[in-house]
Amino acid sequence: MAWTLDGQAALVTGGARRVGAAIARELHGAGASVLLHYRDSEADATRLAAELNAARAGSAATVKADLLAPIAPKALVAAALERFGRLDLLVNNASSFFPVPVGAIEASHWEELMGSNLRAPLFLSQEAAPQLARSKGAITNIVDIHAERPLKGYPLYSIAKAGLAALTRSLALELAPDVRVNGVAPGAIAWPEDGQFDPEERKRILASTPLGRVGTPADIAQAVHFLACAPYVSGQIIAVDGGRSVYL
Questions:
Q1: What is the pLDDT of residues 166-211, one digit of tens each?
Q2: What secondary structure, in 3-state letters, does the chain show?
Q3: Quick one: angle between helices 120-134 and 155-174, nearest 10?
Q4: Cα(53)–Cα(61) distance, rounded to whole angstroms?
Q5: pLDDT in the model for residue 51
């Protein structure tokens, strides 16, 4: 398998920080040009684009969009074509993640969690599909191990990621044979920055992870790179979770 992505162009949603930034660096390091989508993290996106362009001139650009806006899919694909003239890889990474217990769920929670984790990937994939087909390209969705085993206290998030897993497999059928569609399902990779998991909960999660440690964004990025380069893999969701999904 050739690991190079020379001459290809990738769009990474939520590509300015954390896992998205690691994916962008990994794909760029393999030779791809990268369009970094962001919503609020303009400074981070600008810094990362400058870093990538310093390594290879003209190889990175940024685009701001609210993925819940109806115009966003068309605008993002147009931005990729305007900047790079092609689109070979789409990584649906952007995601909202927060708990909402049953009994407190409101329509706004539904719109945010289902919108970012399911609706946006669907419509962006649909918009990108004709361009991806031209180059026999690929879509990679960042799913979650809790798509299969729901996370208590996070019913809407778990439902949305379960939908994204189903979307991944459905699009692998619908877009074949011209576009491959796969997913990566992270486990405990980088703790939320807003302190959603207290120290005791973090200890419990690590105790149920066979490898006994938190993963890194680079672990997810390497799996995305593999799927971008694997010509006979489609409709698959790879768990990158230190073995935790075996334990759950």
A1: 999 999 999 999 999 999 999 999 887 777 788 898 899 999 999 9
A2: CCCCCCCCEEEECCCCCHHHHHHHHHHHHCCCEEEEEECCCHHHHHHHHHHHHHHCCCCEEEEECCCCCCCHHHHHHHHHHHHHCCCCEEEECCCCCCCCCCCCCCHHHHHHHHHHHHHHHHHHHHHHHHHHHHCCCEEEEECCHHHCCCCCCCHHHHHHHHHHHHHHHHHHHHCCCCCEEEEEEECCCCCCCCCCCCHHHHHHHHHCCCCCCCCCHHHHHHHHHHHHHCCCCCCCEEEECCCHHHHC
A3: 20
A4: 8
A5: 98
Distance of alpha carbon 8 from alpha carbon 21, whole angstroms:
18
CB 96 within 8 A of CB 196: no
| Cβ(186)–Cβ(145) below 8 Å | yes
Q: What is the pLDDT of residues 101-114, one digit of tens each?
A: 999 999 999 999 99
Between CA 14 and CA 179 the distance in angstroms is: 22
Q: Which of 154, 157, 232, 247 is catalytic?
A: 157
Query: What are residue 238's DSSP bridge partners?
Result: 184
Average per-residue pLDDT for the chain: 96
Catalytic: 154? no
| Cα–Cα distance, 125 to 121 (Å, whole number) | 6
β-strand partners of 240: 186
Q: Which of 8, 54, 56, 21 is nearest to 228 (CA)?
A: 8
Residue 139 tokens, joined = 């879509």
Q: Which of 200, 195, 240 lies closest to 23, judged by CA?
A: 240
User: What mean pLDDT comes out for the span 104-133?
Assistant: 98
